[in-house]
Amino acid sequence: MFDGLKDKLSGFREDVEESTEAEEEPPDDETAAESGAAASDASAEGVGDTTDAAAVESDSAEAAADDDSASSDDEPSTFQRAKAFATGRIIIEEEDLEEPLWNLEMALLESDVEMSVAEQILDSVRESMLGESRKQVETTGELVESALHDALLDVIAVGQFDFEQRIAEADKPVTIVFTGVNGVGKTTSIAKLSEWLADRGYSSVLANGDTYRAGANEQIREHADRLGRDLISHDQGGDPAAVIYDGVEYAAANDIDVVLGDTAGRLHTSDDLMAQLEKIDRVVDPDMTLFVDEAVAGQDAVNRAKEFDDAAAIDGAILTKADADSSGGAAISVAYVTGKPILFLGTGQGYDDITLFDPEDLVESLIDEE
Ligand SMILES: Nc1nc2c(ncn2[C@@H]2O[C@H](COP(=O)(O)OP(=O)(O)OP(=O)(O)O)[C@@H](O)[C@H]2O)c(=O)[nH]1
Predict the structure, then answer these.
(1) Where does the chain bind GTP (predicted)?
(2) Is the CB of 57 under 6 A from ligand 1?
């Protein structure tokens, strides 16, 4: 999953490794001379005998470094570099990162990562790597990996909550309404989620709030029949809020844990359909409204998530078709842009093809070298 993005992130690691390679060389005579006698001593001692590094760090070299850094700005001073080398450390400088960060930005944008998200990732990678010194035991690759890990996790995990725990703790029945544009996989996701809940001991009823599209009742009925779930539906043209309300009543009367309410596919610009969502909110007051879109839709999915959230607040998102060859941009961007987490990934057309979204797992899989 998201292999293209994974390759590109690995390209960033290689870029940084390449550009810091030169830094691995000891400072030349000129550099050492510039740094003054104390630095030369520190450097010579450090090179000759790394076990003395701690002593070098703690005595005259330290004092000289302080003096030196007082006169410089953000750039590590010559002396700091000499000291870093003497103590077996490498300092990552702005110029080492310039080209790799540029390439990383291009790679993220090509992977459909939203602009503000890409900038946030770059800022945090830059911040955690600049001026960073590493021990010889730590490779530059490891340093890059940890910077990328933290930067990605920070944007992907925005607003994340434990879906199962929320279901467990909520008063029953829990009502979940699904929104999104046409054909992205809302109905299929409802059927999958009904199975996912059943696997964890929760009963559910489906309610078809898509009273707009001809054939919508038949489509969801097919899923309900296959899964052996009850379905609440009204005739085409009926009031979606009334259908979902009936679903809630039915669940309460029959001791069913969760109501899964479908809605017609709509654009956020369809005023009448968006007004329906507001009415559902008013009449049913759902516990959660989940926005469904396709991972393959990339930036479009991110923009739609934002537009839907603005028009009728969502609590989280489901990204379907993550099994198709998608760029990964939507999975990385949706939470940061909307402030609402991705809760599930759809990974195929079978009822079991749904995975609880775990930001840490996604980040690990994106930066894993294997
Ligand atoms: N490969 C793949 N296909 C999926 C996934 N989720 C849904 N689909 C397919 O996407 C198509 C559309 O799914 P629907 O569930 O009908 O979409 P919808 O959003 O309810 O559509 P409307 O009712 O028209 O708004 C179907 O062929 C599904 O099998 C997924 O995670 N992976």
Answers:
(1) 180-187, 262-266, 320-323
(2) no
